[in-house]
Amino acid sequence: MATTGADILPMHAQSTMNKLPLVRRLEAVGFRAWPASSVQYDGSWQVRLTAGHPSKRLNCVVPLDPSDHRDLEIRLEKAQRKFEAYGRPMVVRETPLASPMLVDILQRQGWERFDENIVMTADLVDLELPDALDHLPSHDVGRYVDASLLVDGADPILKPALAEVVSGIKPPSGLFVIENDEAGPVATTLCVQDNDLAGIMSVSVAAQHRRKGLAIEILTSALRWARMRSARTAWLQVGAFNEPALALYARFGFHEAYRYCYWRSPGEA
């Protein structure tokens, strides 16, 4: 549920200074794993915009230095104009790297905080993976995109934009799809291996095929693939209140690294 006002505990208050290097690294690999079509910088702010896809991760301002608090109101207005030119509502992604002064300004200006998420990590080296059927990754972007849209029940109009995003991923990626003869695609996962880190960008199971072990099966395949490619740590992002997903990831040894949320400007709720 979205909240506003001074009762909000900022994301930066949840982290100690010795956690910031990990946050910076995971944010950096996250950008590479889910690339926006346009990336600009204003100081330490990364302005990510993608005209063809509405994902918040692809369309947001991401502050990357807690000490960057120069001309905050002017820069917010400047960023707002860029989002308007793209036809996108402006959102700010608040991680522990955001300046406390920026968060204070957002609160005073009546911005709304929403969509809290948890970034989780798991040690792949000693992880005991379930004894599940193994699936090999595909390199067919079109097949994966079609399957992903179908499994998620997403609008097919997003196909060109999603294909562009997936095709734009530079690090090695594994595109996993589980199909059955009658229903076609029933589960998908995208895993991006960036040196010793493996990002699980999505784990989706078609609504009518849940509770059949497919999420365990496809996630096991992705993590096994990443470990065989010498990844040592897996990471992912999940909604803070998505209890079924949190339970699944806990089973695989994932634990919280940090949290982030989004802010939207007044009138965009």
UniProtKB/TrEMBL annotation:
It comes from the Bacteria. GO terms for molecular function: acyltransferase activity. Its EC number is 2.3.1.-. Residues 120-269 form the N-acetyltransferase domain. Keywords: Acyltransferase, Transferase. CDD domains: NAT_SF (cd04301). PANTHER family: AMINOALKYLPHOSPHONATE N-ACETYLTRANSFERASE-RELATED, AMINOALKYLPHOSPHONATE N-ACETYLTRANSFERASE-RELATED-RELATED. This is GNAT family N-acetyltransferase. It comes from Rhizobium mayense. The lineage of its organism: Bacteria, Pseudomonadati, Pseudomonadota, Alphaproteobacteria, Hyphomicrobiales.
